[in-house]
């Protein structure tokens, strides 16, 4: 499925568009190809685009004061990604967004999103739902990091991102679930022996 078809299918789970609305929406998107390891947003930059992935995978990450990398989210095919704080506030953000593989995306600028809100008001509903889901996922992640074991967090990762487990470097999976690569390797080997 090509990018325009996939993004329209993604949106149709929440709102229905007529042909004129689809054409307007698609005309406001900017297609882009991103090379593996290319960074499309750096910490300290203002997030100017919300990005929909239709091929490949992106990840959002940050560094703590000790220089340790922390993966906050992944965006495989059919997912959106942005630095939500920066996107909404239009202030410098804390996320870096990088391609884990050669990727193809559709980018929606903040200006074009505002045009959509004015011309097709039902997009306010769509993006409200997307932002609500992002907020719920962030809160759930914080609570899981506080209350679940590393094994339970890994199991949830596998359920949330089933297509990624074989394609994402294990050190990034370890970072996402909040453990060192060494601990992760031992834990994963123990889980595999149990099966």
UniProtKB/TrEMBL annotation:
Q: Which CDD domains match?
A: CAP_ED
Which residues does the UniProt record annotate as the domain Cyclic nucleotide-binding? Answer: 34-110
Q: Which Pfam families match?
A: cNMP_binding (PF00027)
Source superkingdom: Bacteria
Gene3D superfamilies xref list = Jelly Rolls
Q: Which SUPFAM superfamilies does UniProt cross-reference here?
A: cAMP-binding domain-like
The record's listing under InterPro entries reads: cNMP-bd_dom (IPR000595), cNMP-bd_dom_sf (IPR018490), RmlC-like_jellyroll (IPR014710)
The coiled-coil regions, if any, are none
Name of protein: cAMP-binding protein
Q: Which organism is it from?
A: Arcticibacter svalbardensis MN12-7
């Amino acid at each position: 499925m090509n990018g325009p078809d996939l993004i329209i299918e993604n949106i149709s789970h929440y709102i229905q568009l007529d042909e004129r609305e689809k054409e307007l929406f698609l005309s406001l998107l900017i297609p882009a190809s991103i090379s593996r390891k290319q960074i499309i947003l750096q910490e300290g930059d203002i997030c100017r685009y919300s990005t929909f992935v239709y091929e490949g995978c992106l990840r959002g990450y940050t560094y703590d004061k000790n220089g340790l990398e922390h993966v906050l989210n992944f965006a495989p095919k059919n997912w959106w990604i942005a630095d939500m704080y920066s996107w909404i506030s239009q202030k410098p953000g804390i996320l870096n967004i990088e391609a884990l593989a050669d990727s193809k995306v559709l980018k929606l600028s903040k200006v074009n999103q505002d045009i959509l809100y004015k011309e097709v008001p039902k997009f306010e509903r769509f993006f409200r739902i997307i932002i609500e889901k992002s907020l719920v996922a962030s809160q759930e992640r914080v609570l899981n990091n506080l209350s679940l074991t590393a094994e339970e967090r890994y199991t949830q990762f596998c359920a949330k991102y089933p297509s990624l487990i074989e394609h994402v470097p294990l050190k990034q999976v370890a970072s996402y679930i909040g453990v060192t690569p060494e601990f992760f390797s031992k834990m994963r080997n123990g889980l595999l022996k149990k099966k």
